[in-house]
Amino acid sequence: MFHVERFNKIKTLFNKGFLVFMAATLFTSCIQPRHTIEINDYVLVSGGKKVLGREQGLTAFIFENNPRKMPFVQFAADKYGVGSYKDVNYWVTYEGHKLKVLLYDLDELQKYFDMGQFMVTSHTTDVNVVGSKEHFIGLSVINESNEDCLDDSSLFKQVTLKYLKELN
Questions:
Q1: Which letter, b or e, does each residue of 14-32 get, where b requires 16 or more Cβ atoms within 10 Å of its Cβ?
Q2: Could you give the residue ranges of the DSSP H alpha helices within 30-134?
Q3: What residues in the chain have per-residue pLDDT under 50?
């Protein structure tokens, strides 16, 4: 009789375990996997900051930050004499074209773009971090007439990309 009770307990435990396994499988199978994009060099994403004379948002040049270097905001502000590390934007003349570069801060990147869709490829320990811990940096560029220089239809796209790649 002792043998029968023990067998019933094992059978009950097996049934409960199987039900828990089936419930866990059911719940996890309902979760949709999220697709992430790995940024090897840069990515152009539309829908950024709004400027006067344009209904649509600007196209942003987004690249992965290197936390082992000086913060990009500080680099840009010092190099172009902006004077402030907040709301960094500056004018530059490149290959005879006058361009205004607009830098997105972390809050603006989150506001205009779904930054969760991008995958961080280089991880750095806290000890090695020299600059900011932001994972991505975004820039938009306009010309004197507020034209989006990174838009597919812009005549300035290739010149602007060349400048931004050199800056990066």
A1: eeeeeeeeeeeeeeeeeee
A2: 72-79, 106-112
A3: 1
pLDDT at residue number 76: 80
pLDDT at residue 87 in the model: 75
* Residue 99 confidence (pLDDT): 93
| The pLDDT of residue 122 | 67
Terminal-residue alpha carbon distance, the chain: 78
Long-range contacts of 105-110 (CB under 8 A, 24+ apart): 105/73, 106/134, 108/49, 108/138, 109/62, 109/136, 109/138
pLDDT of residue 150: 93
CA dist 93 and 75 (Å) reads 18
Contact present, 77 and 88 (Cβ < 8 Å): yes
Q: What are the backbone angles phi and psi of residue 90, rounded to the nearest 5°?
A: -155, 160
All residues at 6 or more sequence positions from 149 whose CB lies less than 8 Å from its CB, including other chains = 99, 141, 142, 143, 156, 157, 159, 160
Are 18 and 11 contacting, i.e. CB atoms less than 8 angstroms apart?
no
The dihedrals phi and psi of 70, each to the nearest 5 degrees, come to -60, 145
User: What is the pLDDT, as a whole number, of residue 130?
Assistant: 61
Handedness of CA 153, 154, 159, 164 (dihedral sign): negative
Output the pLDDT for position 142.
Answer: 93
